[in-house]
Amino acid sequence: MDRPSYVRDRPNAEADNADLYHKPSSNSATVAKHYNEIRELGVEGRLYTKITGLRLFNNWVKSCLIRQYTKRGNKVLDLGCGKGGDLRKWSMSNISEYVGMDIADVSVGQAQRRYKEMNNNRFEARFYAQDCYGEPLEKTLRPVDYKADVVSTQFCLHYAFESEAKARQMMANVSTHMEPGAYFMCTIPNANWLEKKRRVLGDSFGNSVYRVEFAPGKATRFGTAYSFSLDEAVQDCTEYLVHMPSFVQLAGEYGLELKDCIGFHHYYTQQMQRDDATGLFWRMRVIDEERPEISKDEWEAIGIYLVVVFRKMQ
């Protein structure tokens, strides 16, 4: 599949000011420490890294998802909100209420500050620091019976697959706090893609921007760990395969039905048939005159991820 390349006379605008990787949980204290310590690059800093194209592309995917599944006045629960990099995306969808939760307390503090610094806030927001997957949300969430129209977990849900017990706690947290008909949308690593690479290349593979290393052994439904690194974003962090048949089955047990499951490369092709998504792609300057294409290595790394969407049954 062809990588995006620059075409002249496209609309231009300032890139979306958002973080890419804001992940909760796993071996809770270790992961919280890891993401709390990732240095803040700032808006300009994020535009001049080896993975700038990847960052902007993935932010575009999240923006498309938010626009596609969010309506004016919706209430949002963001599990793994990190530094609040998606707050402006939610604001553009005219939501009424936002709850952000993340295991990394330093990141949650930064998200709170980012919200306070936003001009003309269109929604109420509150933030909580806790393990969104290993513990019931009711530990900190107020009101305890809060229900959202949209639940979002971006680039973080794979930590819940450390064990079946943790995955079930995650699904209980999600389902309990969804209105009937609400959407649960997430972006996760594609376990099939990773396993295919592993079969061909062995337990360790990657390129100039990412690296994956598996311990020897057969993949299982829960707890198959691998070490993941991504330039300027993640360094040797332990992640877990999300076995999609198990995920779909588990979601069904908690009253959710699968609506979409599509790789990022194919999601790009699909969305670029839509005028609004195409316009957003150029306004966010995923590619422009300074960066006329997404590099081959970035494009390969983009292929790691899936868009997955569930809907809570009535």
TrEMBL record:
User: Mind telling me which InterPro entries this protein's record contains?
Assistant: mRNA_G-N7_MeTrfase_dom, mRNA_G-N7_MeTrfase_euk, RG7MT1, SAM-dependent_MTases_sf
Tell me which UniProt keywords the record has, alphabetically: Methyltransferase, mRNA capping, mRNA processing, Nucleus, RNA-binding, S-adenosyl-L-methionine, Transferase
UniProt GO molecular function: mRNA 5'-cap (guanine-N7-)-methyltransferase activity; RNA binding
Q: List the residue(s) that the UniProt entry marks as the site mRNA cap binding.
A: K83, K89, R114, H158, E239, Y305
What GO CC annotations are associated with the protein?
nucleus
- Where it mainly occurs, coarsely classed, is nucleus
Q: Which SUPFAM superfamilies match?
A: S-adenosyl-L-methionine-dependent methyltransferases (SSF53335)
Kindly give the PROSITE patterns that the UniProt entry links to this protein. RNA_CAP0_MT
Annotated ranges, domain MRNA cap 0 methyltransferase: 49-313
Which reaction is the catalytic activity of this chain?
Answer: a 5'-end (5'-triphosphoguanosine)-ribonucleoside in mRNA + S-adenosyl-L-methionine = a 5'-end (N(7)-methyl 5'-triphosphoguanosine)-ribonucleoside in mRNA + S-adenosyl-L-homocysteine
Residues the entry annotates as binding S-adenosyl-L-methionine: K62, G80, D102, D131, Q154, Y159
Which domain of life does the protein's organism represent?
Eukaryota
Q: What is its EC number?
A: 2.1.1.56
Give residues annotated as binding mRNA: N58, N59
Family annotation (Gene3D superfamilies): Vaccinia Virus protein VP39 (3.40.50.150)
Subcellular location(s): the record lists: Nucleus
Q: Where is the composition biased (Basic and acidic residues)?
A: 1-13
- Record Pfam families: mRNA_G-N7_MeTrfase
Span list, region Disordered: 1-25
How is this protein named in the record?
mRNA cap guanine-N(7) methyltransferase
